[in-house]
Amino acid sequence: xxxxxxxxxxxxxxxxxxxxxxxxxxxxxxxxxxxxxxxxxxxxxxxxxxxxxxxxxxxxxxxxxxxxxxxxxxxxxxxxxxxxxxxxxxxxxxxxxxxxxxxxxxxxxxxxxxxxxxxxxxxxxxxxxxxxxxxxxxxxxxxxxxxxxxxxxxxxxxxxxxxxxxxxxxxxxxxxxxxxxxxxxxxxxxxxxxxxxxxxxxxxxxxxxxxxxxxxxxxxxxxxxxxxxxxxxxxxxxxxxxxxxxxxxxxxxxxxxxxxxxxxxxxxxxxxxxxxxxxxxxxxxxxxxxxxxxxxxxxxxxxxxxxxxxxxxxxxxxxxxxxxxxxxxxxxxxxxxxxxxxxxxxxxxxxxxxxxxxxxxxxxxxxxxxxxxxxxxxxxxxxxxxxxxxxxxxxxxxxxxxxxxxxxxxxxxxxxxxxxxxxxxxxxxxxxxxxxxxxxxxxxxxxxxxxxxxxxxxxxxxxxxxxxxxxxxxxxxxxxxxxxxxxxxxxxxxxxxxxxxxxxxxxxxxxxxxxxxxxxxx
Length: 522
Hints:
This protein is α/β, with parallel strands linked by helices. It contains 19 helices and 14 strands. The chain has helices at 2-18, 27-48, 53-56, 66-75, 78-97, 108-169, 172-183, 190-220, 233-243, 245-250, 270-286, 319-322, 334-340, 346-356, 409-421, 432-441, 458-469, 482-491, 503-517, and strands at residues 229-232, 254-259, 265-268, 293-302, 305-312, 360-365, 372-379, 401-405, 425-429, 446-450, 452-453, 456-457, 473-477, 495-498. α4 (66-75) runs parallel beside α6 (108-169). The protein is elongated.
């Protein structure tokens, strides 16, 4: 029994103190270890040392040392636990041999036998607990390391998607600008007009796919920020139908409107609400065969509820697909992906956006080739009071002197041509240094600058020019999340446009900025 107990008490002490510890104390833990050792010495001497009358009377109070040993095992590693047990064992053996403590029997042999049994039980219990806690700490460390790796991978992925968005959007801007320029020419054949319309549709589709990927990333990270306003849902539907009219006509589809809801104002982010309707209508057009029908209806099950249904006569949804129809990248039957293409993100984004607006989006279908219906339900709000319409700001009354800065040559050239055609005087620069030199030599009414420049940023350029001359600015960038827009506004830009830049959006932004600078708007 003595040999077994020594194996349990002494061997771990020797082994654990001869190997490098896997975990080092910090200052707070070192103080805690010292305090535990002092407490263990005091309790050990109290029970076995003969310092107090309780030791001589042999009361069975050895259990008061157990919690300190177990706490050491719980808070620290096996090395500290083995040390505490060894110190307590030395004090207990000395006290028992001198007739102190609860284990004193008729003979010395009996006393040591009972003491060693108690020590062995405490050692096995405490060392098992210490080993379990050490294993838990290793698991926690592994989880923390894996979490850090996952977070780093997520940051890398987000940075990659943001950069991918910028790199994919930037080449689309000169294409859109060239389309705007070509479509203003009068001498166009019917075939040319159709070809230009086809190019525009596909460029806009490419831009929407990029936006869908970024929206999905923001939704997954719960970073999607919405700007709520009271909007007319019927007007939003009409806007979307007009945007999708060419796609429906190309597939010879009949789009019917049945907007019967009396209460049709909702609290929503205008752009994101239209995106929900746009995704649902595009989905219906995509999966409906030629000469089919798509119906958009609205109703009020109760005055506080608005229901918008998009119904089609298309391929339908099979029951086994219905459960995952709103999952990202889900497109139902694999043959649909080969046949119709796309990423399968529209419905997933629409459902998440509906939930972010406090609404619901559900799908219904009677099966394959029986069509499908998507029902959006949202709470209504009172219609806003009509405001006096402000006079539109004309930007054509006076040619604006514009400094255009973009390191992408094609984008710069295309936007310059569009602005010159609109009567503006335009000077171009491709980096921050040349832009500053141009701004020093000339006086400008407006800065239009890319955010990412080879020798700095458009934000730095805006801050410097704004401090010198107070010039207003419009930022253009392939980066378009809320954080990017906020940084642009904080730098002094009045507007932030996301590439690809459309002529009508650029003209509207110029009108707002120049209008805000005119004396009548101060």
